[in-house]
Amino acid sequence: MHWIYLCLAILFEVAGTTSMKLSDGFIRVIPSVLLIFFYICSLCFLTLTLKSLEVSIAYAIWSGMGIIIITLIGFMYFNESVSLLKIVAIALIIIGVVTLNMTGEKEANASKSTLEEHMR
């Protein structure tokens, strides 16, 4: 279930950041209200994610995937520049997220068991 919460947190964060761009510095009311709503939703779902996933893993995936998606939205909808350096940076973020995903699950299960024992 934590992966569903994390995906929702990412989608709401991306919607909030897109609304931030559309708000024109809080001048446009509807995008300004939406950005606050979307960020509240994003943080709520991220908080639910943290009940069963390590904060270092969840936050890295949340921010990394948000950066990737927002960068693509910037390229496609806001006509932002594309450069080799940006593409390489995004590729490195993807590699980092995949690596964290591969190692994080095993470590998270071991750490959670240890933490639960200490809290008893």
Write the layout of secondary structure elements.
Blueprint: H1 2-22, H2 29-49, H3 55-77, H4 84-119
Helix pairs in contact: 1-2, 1-3, 3-4
Question: Which terms summarize this structure?
Answer:
120 residues, mainly alpha, Multidrug resistance protein, SMR family
How would you describe this protein?
The chain is an all-alpha fold. It has one domain (2-119). Helices cover 84% and strands 0% of the residues. It has four helices and no strands. The longest helix is centred in the C-terminal third of the chain and has 36 residues, at 84-119. The protein is flat. It is a multi-pass membrane protein. It is found in: Cell membrane. Keywords: Cell membrane, Membrane, Transmembrane, Transmembrane helix, Transport. This is Multidrug resistance protein, SMR family. Its main location: membrane.
State the gist of this model.
The protein has 120 residues and is mainly alpha-helical. Helix content is 84%, strand content 0%.
Count, helices: 4
Radius of gyration: 17 Å
Beta fraction of the residues? under 5%
Instruction: Tell me, rounded to a whole number, the average pLDDT.
Output: 89
Largest sheet: none
The portion of residues assigned to helices is over 70%
